[in-house]
Specification:
With 106 residues, the protein is an alpha+beta fold. The protein is built from 2 helices and 7 strands; from the N terminus they run E-E-E-H-E-E-E-H-E. It has a 6-stranded antiparallel β-barrel.
């Protein structure tokens, strides 16, 4: 189950557990898939925060914080996770990780 806190002026903080998946392209990319309830929360604020079709976020997995932008895919959102984050937090393909995201731009 996801939890959320809405900020005044748009945006929100969401906490959820999501699975790490791979999307192959010219190079493999790794993402955490938002569960549908978390995706619904993002959809509530996306009109206020979307930028060129993506949603900017500050994310935290374990002790590692990073900035990225989520992509809409397969009726949810995919959170890109760099190799440095996966290495620092020791997780990989198929793992379920706890994530906190701050949705929106500063």
């Amino acid at each position: 189950m996801s939890s959320a806190r809405i900020w005044e002026g748009g945006g929100m903080e969401i906490e959820f557990d999501g699975e790490v998946v791979e999307w192959r392209g010219p190079a493999p990319f790794y993402f955490v898939v938002l569960p549908l309830d978390a995706a619904d929360l993002v959809d509530e604020v996306k009109a206020e925060v979307v930028y060129w079709g993506v949603v900017p976020v500050r994310a935290q997995i374990g002790e590692t914080e990073f900035e990225t932008a989520m992509f809409p895919r397969e009726e949810t959102w995919f959170l890109p996770v760099k190799a440095a984050v996966r290495k620092a937090e020791a997780f990989g393909l198929g793992d379920v990780v706890a994530v906190r995201i701050d949705v929106g731009r500063d």
